[in-house]
């Protein structure tokens, strides 16, 4: 490419944070990414595929699929778990909602967002739509802007972090995969960011929480395809002082400063966000896992006392601000599946009782979640169980299992095989595992899409 063409393909301000990020996305190559990052990402992708297949035929997933199929004609992109193709945007939306369908999918410990549900569905839909797009750095790369808005603090403001941060990640990943120049990557990011948003009130009784990251996946895919067609997006979208992404979402944060613009480009090429991605061992909101671990610890250390549920007077759960706002609310009957998987009090009671529904609610009603401003780390949680005539039991964890330390690659494979055991047959499972763990060797990622196509089973039917 000659120097004139290179200049024409530059973002509006190459030295600004938006321009610097878009140039980095354009220039990064698979060979620039450390081998250990590539390896870890392959296992993360395998986990995302596991969650997708498990979630495809849950009740709420089937409702969504039925509605979309009725609205949309047959298209070019596969809706995984179904013997059906749809439009690329609808396929991305549904496949993402399947990954989020059972609260088993990954989460980013700093941003936070659920990377697989944002990036994988958008990439696979784009690949099928544009016919055999090569795999490469796009399959490995996804950049979060969440730290620019103080990460999990967004939860305390009532924003669904992944729905706010996610369009940036999916738009840059798709833009990279389809080979957009840096100026069009900027357009894609600008189009994606103006679609960002998501309300945390979706966590109580709605089924739409399962779909919020799907909106982000769809928005990023749409943005990249519009930019590819020459549609111009918002320039310098992150740093604009009026109506820019950071300025708008930073309002009312009560943080000083309200946003951190330097975080957009901090550590590009040296700090790989892959290492911030965590894999869930439990099918519930990540911020309930510390409480589950606390209760589990007490069950191991005091097996007889913790079985005496009738003598429990109260359960006190202590947590930091972000966890308290997200999962510290009082669960009440009737409680939808979404709310049950988000509630710390319900998670604690379920861990104690295991399937005895009336006893679960008896314990939920004895449980109080408390914000403790003296909690020293954001991931720390504490459980205190008071009994009628027995010693009070206390347990705490600095971070939940899967966070400190993260699940190993071997543990991810174990999870993949376990949760897909009754969803797909052994032959298909072996093929998918092999393709995911060798994804950078594929000629194009539609090879993976082909083996993911076809019916799957409901794991809880």
From TrEMBL:
<dbReference type="Pfam" id="PF03972">
    <property type="entry name" value="MmgE_PrpD_N"/>
</dbReference>
<comment type="similarity">
    <text>Belongs to the PrpD family.</text>
</comment>
<protein>
    <submittedName>
        <fullName>2-methylcitrate dehydratase PrpD</fullName>
    </submittedName>
</protein>
<dbReference type="InterPro" id="IPR005656">
    <property type="entry name" value="MmgE_PrpD"/>
</dbReference>
<dbReference type="Pfam" id="PF19305">
    <property type="entry name" value="MmgE_PrpD_C"/>
</dbReference>
<feature type="domain" description="MmgE/PrpD C-terminal">
    <location>
        <begin position="282"/>
        <end position="438"/>
    </location>
</feature>
<dbReference type="InterPro" id="IPR036148">
    <property type="entry name" value="MmgE/PrpD_sf"/>
</dbReference>
<dbReference type="InterPro" id="IPR042183">
    <property type="entry name" value="MmgE/PrpD_sf_1"/>
</dbReference>
<dbReference type="InterPro" id="IPR045337">
    <property type="entry name" value="MmgE_PrpD_C"/>
</dbReference>
<dbReference type="GO" id="GO:0016829">
    <property type="term" value="F:lyase activity"/>
</dbReference>
<feature type="domain" description="MmgE/PrpD N-terminal">
    <location>
        <begin position="20"/>
        <end position="253"/>
    </location>
</feature>
<dbReference type="InterPro" id="IPR045336">
    <property type="entry name" value="MmgE_PrpD_N"/>
</dbReference>
């Amino acid at each position: 490419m000659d120097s004139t063409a290179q200049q024409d393909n530059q973002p509006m301000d190459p030295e600004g944070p938006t321009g610097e990020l878009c140039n980095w996305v354009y220039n990064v190559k698979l060979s620039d990414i450390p081998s250990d990052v590539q390896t870890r990402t392959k296992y993360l992708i395998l986990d995302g595929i596991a969650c997708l297949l498990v979630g495809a035929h849950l009740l709420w997933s089937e409702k969504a699929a039925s509605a979309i199929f009725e609205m949309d004609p047959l298209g070019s992109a596969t809706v995984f778990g179904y013997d059906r193709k749809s439009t690329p945007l609808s396929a991305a939306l549904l496949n993402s909602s399947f990954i989020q369908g059972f609260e088993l999918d990954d989460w980013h410990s700093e941003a936070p967002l659920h990377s697989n549900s944002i990036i994988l569905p958008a990439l696979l839909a784009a690949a099928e739509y544009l016919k055999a797009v090569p795999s490469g750095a796009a399959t490995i790369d996804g950049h979060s802007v969440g730290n620019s808005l103080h990460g999990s603090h967004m939860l305390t403001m009532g924003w669904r972090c992944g729905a706010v941060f996610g369009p940036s990640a999916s738009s840059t990943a798709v833009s990279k995969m389809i080979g957009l120049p840096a100026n069009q990557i900027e357009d894609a990011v600008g189009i994606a960011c103006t679609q960002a948003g998501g309300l945390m009130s979706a966590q109580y009784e709605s089924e739409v929480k399962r779909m919020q990251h799907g909106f982000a996946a769809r928005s990023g895919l749409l943005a990249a395809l519009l930019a590819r067609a020459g549609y111009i997006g918002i320039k310098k979208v992150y740093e604009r002082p009026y109506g820019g992404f950071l300025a708008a979402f930073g309002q009312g944060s009560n943080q000083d400063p309200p946003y951190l613009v330097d975080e957009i480009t901090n550590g590009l090429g040296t700090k790989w966000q892959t290492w911030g991605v965590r894999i869930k061992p439990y099918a519930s909101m990540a911020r309930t896992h510390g409480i589950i671990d606390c209760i589990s610890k007490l069950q191991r250390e005091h097996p007889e006392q913790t079985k005496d549920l009738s003598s429990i007077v109260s359960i006190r759960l202590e947590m930091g601000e972000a966890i308290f706002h997200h999962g510290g609310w009082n669960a009440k009957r009737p409680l939808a599946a979404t709310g049950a998987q988000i509630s710390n009090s319900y998670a604690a009671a379920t861990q104690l009782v295991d399937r005895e529904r009336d006893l679960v609610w008896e314990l939920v009603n004895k449980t109080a979640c408390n914000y403790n401003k003296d909690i020293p780390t954001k991931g720390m949680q504490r459980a205190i169980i008071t009994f009628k005539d027995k010693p009070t039991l206390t347990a705490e964890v600095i971070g939940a299992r899967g966070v400190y330390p993260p699940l190993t690659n071997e543990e991810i494979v174990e999870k993949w095989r376990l949760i897909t055991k009754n969803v797909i047959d052994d032959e298909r499972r072996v093929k998918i595992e092999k393709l995911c763990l060798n994804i950078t060797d594929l000629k194009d990622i539609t090879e993976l899409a082909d083996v993911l196509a076809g019916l799957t089973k409901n794991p809880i039917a």
